[in-house]
Amino acid sequence: MKILLINHYAGSNIHGMEYRPYYLAKEWVKNGHEVTIIGASYSHIRTVQPEMAESWKEEFLDGIRYIWIQTPPYEGNGVKRIINMMVFLKVLQAKSSYIAKTYQPDVVIASSTYPLDIYPARKIAKKSGARLIFEVHDLWPLSPMELGNMSPRHPFIMVMQKGENDAYRYSDTVVSLLPKADQHMIEHGLAPGKFRYLPNGIDVEQWNQSTEKIPNEHTELIQQLKAEGKFLVGYAGTHGIANALEYLIDAAELIIDEPIAFVLVGKGPERDQLIKMAQEKNLTNIHFLPVINKKAIPDFLSHMDALYIGWRRSPLYRFGVSPNKLLDYLMAGRPIIHGIEAGNDLVAEAGAGVSIEPENPRKIADAVIAMKLYPSEELNQMGRNGKEFVIQTHDYRVLSQKFIDIMKEN
């Protein structure tokens, strides 16, 4: 089967996020399919941008054909980002006949965060007689409306809303990373039978083969805390507004006299403010360590006694969440404290820890103290439950085959 996947922000093991297109495509190639990924040359979430000598570049990575369309750089969510999107879409639309004739896809997947790529994707699919799949990562324009308080009458929102509605009508199938998004989509024109849920995943084989160790600075602190008899609660990931880490700091203040330490690894826009907050509270039981390589995440998590992840309260989460970080936590085989109010809860589904209401320092503190008192066998069982759950339901080898089955549906 010839698969064409359009994802503006597509990454790879070399470029960094977004990883999902790469991991799915890698498995499809292993199983004999021909895969082409089309992405923009500049994305704010990539660590490394592809080098561009011309406006159109084709290269192969792990058997996957990547086509990069040259787009201008940008910062933040201003006009320059919109220009970046428009350049990508304009070139894609102009090249649609060439793409259809040259690559002759059997399936075209429109998979960018925003819905406007459905128009060139539809054109390519029609010219090549291909099946058209719309893959939804986030609900646009609902996300900027509910998170950014943008008016539904804002021109940008109105354009995006038309794109979303058309995508649901034009597509043969809609694949969603959010399990409870079907009702919203149906209200915007999706035929009920078109909806399929396929969550984010993890490359289990790569995770198990990761041998990179954490830096000496991290090892020394962890060894010191363990020598002091501390129960270690770890967090590895972005320090951003969405991660609600200020409530973890407030929780640390509530149990400062307990033999418990919080160890946070990562970077993000809120990191300096969080460090300042902890210093102002004179907290000695919370430690901020520098970001580590993704390949060292398994080693860091293995040193923790428990792991924490929390979310803000958001009406958007009623459709469910599909966080990559949580899959790392589950693979680590450690019990998890999960602050969440959403349409789904992987920790509860897996029996991999304790779920509490979000944005509540007292609940976090109580959960940590309770978990510290659990028998070691109970904690180990939670860890085993989480790891087995991921392997069975979120390994990209499993998800890639489910996606192929979706592509083959009549």
Index terms:
six-stranded parallel beta sheet, 410 residues, alpha/beta, Rossmann fold, 2 domains, 17% strand, single chain, eight-stranded mixed beta sheet
Would you mind describing this structure in some detail?
With 410 residues, the protein is α/β, with parallel strands linked by helices. It has two domains: 2-201 and 395-407, Rossmann fold (3-Layer(aba) Sandwich); 206-393, Rossmann fold (3-Layer(aba) Sandwich). It is 42% helix and 17% strand. It is built from 17 helices and 14 strands. The protein has helices at 20-30, 79-94, 96-103, 118-128, 142-148, 155-170, 182-187, 204-209, 216-227, 246-254, 271-280, 297-302, 324-331, 346-350, 361-373, 376-393, 396-407; strands at residues 2-6, 34-40, 56-61, 64-69, 107-110, 131-136, 173-176, 195-197, 231-236, 260-265, 286-289, 306-310, 336-339, 353-356. The strands form two sheets. Strands 3-4-2-1-5-6-7-8 form an eight-stranded mixed β-sheet. A six-stranded parallel β-sheet has the order 11-10-9-12-13-14, sandwiched between helices. Helix 7 links the parallel strand 7 and strand 8. Helix 1 (20-30) crosses helix 17 (396-407), helix 10 (246-254) crosses helix 15 (361-373) and helix 13 (324-331) packs across helix 16. The longest helix is centred in the last third of the chain and has 18 residues, at 376-393. It is globular and about 65 Å long. The chain starts with a strand and ends with a helix.
